[in-house]
Design goal:
This is Acyl-CoA reductase. The protein is α/β, with parallel strands linked by helices. It has two domains: 186 residues, Aldehyde Dehydrogenase, Chain A, domain 1, CATH 3.40.605; 128 residues, Aldehyde Dehydrogenase, Chain A, domain 2 (3-Layer(aba) Sandwich). The protein contains twelve helices and eleven strands. The chain has a six-stranded mixed beta sheet with strand order 8-9-10-7-6-11, with helices on both faces. Strands 3-2-1-4-5 form a five-stranded parallel beta sheet, with helices on both faces. Helix 8 links the parallel strand 6 and strand 7. Helix 2 packs antiparallel against helix 6 and helix 8 packs across helix 9. The radius of gyration is 21 Å and the shape is globular.
């Protein structure tokens, strides 16, 4: 199968997904194989929402819209242009996927297939409904993908390389278990925002998207703020208030109530507004409904700290702080060439 065939297949997959990426799911007349797949995928979205309380339809459709935006002919060509994919020796690549947000392992899945390899997928039980259905659609669009996609719930065997994502503890297990195989092993990371006190209300409103989307469960969600000494949080709390409806979600509300009770009983200082808390803390990993913050005096010293802690940080949200920053509101809208942990997946796949 030629590269252009693979690209064309993923463009068609993006067109299929586009029917499900809005608040109102709407069937289109010009999408291939809709008679077979449209109602089925609509049902899979419903199953995913019922199976995992964090996977609301709003968050599922938001994730799908991200893939609609990514899977265009222009984006796919731009992504793959730097690589020579003409002489790939096909191997079987295993992917162990996380399940914290909908389709979180989709980029690895696409990367393996579009580079010409076969894929063996072990999904998280938290996110098991959407991807197998999309994989089946892909096989219908391009027959040459048949026998190149395999899902398993069993122990992984007979593969040539692995991409595995998990917690810090499971990552250590992965490193030991897969030490004889070419691998990408990912562990816990969090994202940070560096504020300078000059942000506009619109900036902070956009930052709320980086904090609250997917209930803060993604590694690209901002879980830590760095703020200048004597920073006034009033404007910040005012700007994020439009997300107050999030407390209506029972799972989120339960976490908010629990973490608030823990802080109060422990007599920790924190600020809260009825649906969200901020707490001064040196850690990067904050619990649900909470963001940690830390003061800084000198921007250059902060850059050195962030550089030293780079293996804990996924994204840096700021305006003018660093050359590789992400704009406010954009953490959950990565491009195809925005690789997790800054590890080039395609380059890895070309070397195995």
């Amino acid at each position: 199968m030629h590269l252009q065939q693979r690209i064309n297949a993923f463009v068609k997959l993006g067109e299929f997904i586009s029917q499900f990426s809005t608040k109102v799911i709407q069937k289109k007349d010009n999408v291939e194989h809709n008679a077979i797949f449209f109602d089925g995928f609509k049902h899979q979205i419903k199953l995913a929402e019922e199976h995992n309380g964090w996977f609301t339809q709003e968050n599922i459709t938001f994730a799908l819209q991200g893939w609609v935006d990514a899977l265009t002919l222009q984006n796919l060509k731009k992504w793959l242009q730097p690589y020579n994919l003409d002489a790939v020796n096909p191997k079987k690549v295993a992917i162990i996927m996380a399940g914290n947000i909908p389709l979180v392992g989709f980029h690895d899945f696409i990367s393996v297939l579009i580079s010409g390899h076969r894929v063996l997928v072990k999904q998280s039980s938290n996110d098991k409904h959407l991807l197998p259905f999309l994989a089946k659609y892909l096989e219908y669009v391009e027959n040459d993908f048949k026998n190149k996609i395999e899902f398993t719930e069993e122990k992984l065997t007979h593969f040539d390389a692995v991409i595995a994502t998990g917690s810090n503890n499971t990552a250590r297990y992965f490193e030991y278990y897969f030490k004889g195989k070419p691998s990408i092993i990912r562990n816990n990371r969090n994202s940070v925002a560096v504020l300078n006190g000059k942000e506009t209300k619109e900036d902070l409103q956009q930052l709320a998207e980086d904090i609250f989307r997917y209930y803060g469960l993604g590694c690209r969600n901002v879980s830590k703020l760095f703020v200048p000494k004597n920073y006034n949080f009033d404007t910040f709390f005012e700007a994020i208030y439009h997300w107050h409806h999030i407390i209506e979600k029972a799972k989120y509300a339960n976490n908010y109530d629990y973490n608030k009770a823990v802080y109060l009983m422990s007599e920790f200082d924190m600020l809260e507004n009825g649906f969200f808390m901020i707490k001064e803390d040196a850690s990067y990993t904050s619990p649900i409904a909470t963001v940690f913050y830390e003061y800084y005096d000198d921007a250059n010293q902060l850059k050195q700290k962030i550089k030293a802690d780079a293996n804990q940080i996924q994204c840096i949200v700021s305006n003018g702080f660093t050359s590789h920053e992400i704009a406010f509101g954009k953490t959950q809208k990565p491009e195809l060439w925005d690789y997790a942990d800054n590890v080039d997946t395609i380059a890895f796949l070309l070397e195995i």
